[in-house]
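We store amino acids, tokens; thus:
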Amino acid sequence: MGARPPQNDSSEPEVIEFGIAALSARLDEAAVEFPATSSELCAAVDDTAIPVDGAGNTMELETALQRLPQDRFDNESALLDMLHPVFEEYRKQAGDSIFGRLRTLLPF
């Protein structure tokens, strides 16, 4: 289900980043230097509620990092590669819930 964009608006549509794209942008803003630990990453990022889908569901960075088998990351690419399946699983679970289904039907 979708909504038709306004006809008279010539501006670009707003892009919503979620998952590792949203985290990558926040890491860039925080100027995180690698190698880094989970606690250093959480301390450096201002907003740790990472969007996981376009419906507005979020996952705390600390929660996502706790699901990984290691606490120290040599570079951003390795971190994001490890977090990708964590965010995907959470996104799937959030979308499968009754609340998640209702949320996708309602306009923002």
Observations:
- The two ends are 13 Å apart (CA to CA).
- The mean pLDDT is 83.
